[in-house]
Design brief:
The chain is mainly alpha-helical and 469 residues long. It has helices spanning 7-29, 42-55, 86-98, 102-127, 130-142, 144-148, 156-175, 182-195, 203-211, 219-241, 250-260, 267-278, 280-294, 301-319, 332-343, 348-370, 378-390, 405-410, 426-432, 448-457, and strands spanning 69-70, 78-79, 396-399, 413-416, 437-439, 460-462, 465-467.
Length: 469
């Protein structure tokens, strides 16, 4: 007689599909891994890395090391109101130990993305079943937004990893009927909100997963959980807000200016971002999963429907006001879970075969939609290297346009020009800046007359570099 399969062997075979999903996810996120921080969302990637450069040499200077600094707009690095700089701090330690390279930031993000995929599998498995968890992990792995923002040097990968595991651990705690350990889950959710403020939308979802329906014995734990989640972000964001100038209050500025007071909602661009970021096939599947939830006695139905309602409100208020596709990233896990729930509706074999076919089609769309995001302009590096090699380290730059990546690669500080400042022409503003060199950025938005004035007044000493002294 043949020997039976031991529980250990059974568990190994059970996780082989997940290992395959993680391997594919890793390969997809290695595309463009050696790119400088100049591809899509170059601005925000360079900002994140710049914050890390200012932390080096001050890594134990608490709490000031956690006050983010950027190279613009001033003659010294400026304090700015941004999210808690977990990733810059981690990156600064990595550079201190292993040396500077953009690659380290990308590798940290890829690692965090894989951690997120495992968390989505864990959440899907425990909320539904093993098969649904695998489908959720696979769908999340190959959605265009997930692939691209799973390898960027931005706070999204870290915030996503911590928030999805905060939800997964809340549900685990609930189904195991544990009495202790809620503070660990709360700290993880607090860290997610600190890393990226939009993750706050998941706080009610976590409460419903962990505590609903509310029983007498859980009231004290709910209060404890809420305090631990909310107090650290409140304290940090207030501390940063009152330690920066009004012109550098980015977080509150976005909330009050671009969201609360926005009257121009760009639904057309938002629709395009959703279609390209999720793919039409995934959107249809998630709609099917939502429909199934309405007629299902699932214990997580109320939590997921609430998540869907909050996500829809978030998209309508934030993503239409600021139609940048990375604002859609917090919605990715819900879309993956709902899509998996729809696929799991079908019987085992035909459903699995259909699921594999659908995954292939999603990836096909992903590859085509993502290709433009990996393009970058070599001129930025050429100019920055020239500046770094031929100008004093104390030099003050003036960039011809808002994109600030040159400051990071040239390791200089300075100012940026926009087309209109206080009704003055850019050339008049340029004359007032205490700058040493003007940089003619690639694809500059300044008009012909501006550059004619610059060429008449200042000598060009490098590739698009004008001496203002």
């Amino acid at each position: 007689m043949g020997r039976g399969i031991s529980p250990a062997e059974s568990n190994v075979k059970r996780y082989i599909p997940l290992a395959l999903i993680l391997s594919i996810a890793l390969l997809l996120r290695l595309r463009g891994i050696a790119n400088p921080l100049l591809d899509d969302q170059a601005w925000r990637q360079a900002d994140t890395a710049s914050m890390a450069t200012h932390m080096m040499g001050h890594l134990l200077d608490f709490p000031n090391v956690f006050l983010p600094k950027l190279n613009y707009d001033g003659v010294i690095p400026q304090n700015v109101e941004l999210e808690f700089p977990f990733l810059p701090y981690l990156l600064a330690w990595t550079w201190t130990i292993l040396g500077w390279s953009d690659l380290w930031g990308r590798l940290w993000s890829v690692t965090l993305s894989l951690v997120t995929i495992v968390g989505i599998y864990d959440l899907g498995r425990n909320m539904f079943n093993h098969r649904a968890g695998l489908f959720a992990a696979a769908i999340y792995s190959i959605m265009p937004l997930s692939i691209y923002y799973g390898r960027v040097v931005m706070p999204e990968p870290m915030a996503q990893a911590w928030s999805i595991w905060a939800l997964a651990m809340a549900w685990r705690w609930r189904i195991k009927q544990e009495e202790k350990g809620i503070w660990k889950i709360a700290l993880l959710m607090a860290a997610a909100v600190l890393a990226k403020l939009p993750q706050l939308m998941l706080f009610p979802v976590a409460v419903l997963l962990g505590f609903w329906p509310l029983k007498n014995g859980r009231v004290r734990q709910l209060i404890q959980y809420s305090i631990i989640v909310l107090i650290p972000p409140i304290v940090y964001y207030l501390w940063v807000h009152y330690n920066v100038s009004s012109s550098s209050q980015f977080v509150s500025g976005i909330l009050t200016g671009q969201v609360a007071n926005s009257t121009n909602l760009d639904w057309k661009l938002l629709t395009r971002n959703i279609q390209r970021g999720f793919t039409v096939l995934v959107l249809v599947l998630s709609g099917g999963g939502l429909l199934r939830l309405f007629f299902s006695p699932s214990p997580v139905r109320f939590a997921l429907l609430t998540w869907g309602a909050i996500g829809s409100l978030y998209i309508g208020l934030v993503c239409a006001s600021i139609p940048l596709d990375y604002y859609l990233v917090p919605v990715l896990p819900l879309v993956a879970l709902l899509s998996a729930y729809a696929l799991d509706w079908m019987a085992s074999l035909p459903g699995t075969v259909l699921g594999i076919v659908i995954l292939v089609l999603i990836y096909k769309s992903s590859y085509a939609d993502l290709t433009p995001k990996y393009q970058w302009n070599q001129e930025y590096l050429t100019q920055a290297r020239w500046i770094k090699e031929h100008t004093p380290t104390s030099s003050i730059l003036v960039l011809s346009d808002p994109p600030p990546m040159t400051f990071y690669y040239a390791q200089r500080v300075g100012f940026r020009l926009i087309n209109k400042i206080n009704q003055e022409t850019p050339f008049k503003v340029l004359e007032k800046f205490p700058g040493d060199y003007l940089v003619h950025l690639p694809r500059s938005g300044q008009n012909e007359q501006f550059w004619k004035n610059v060429e008449e007044r200042y000598p060009e000493i490098g590739p698009g570099i004008f001496d203002l002294r």
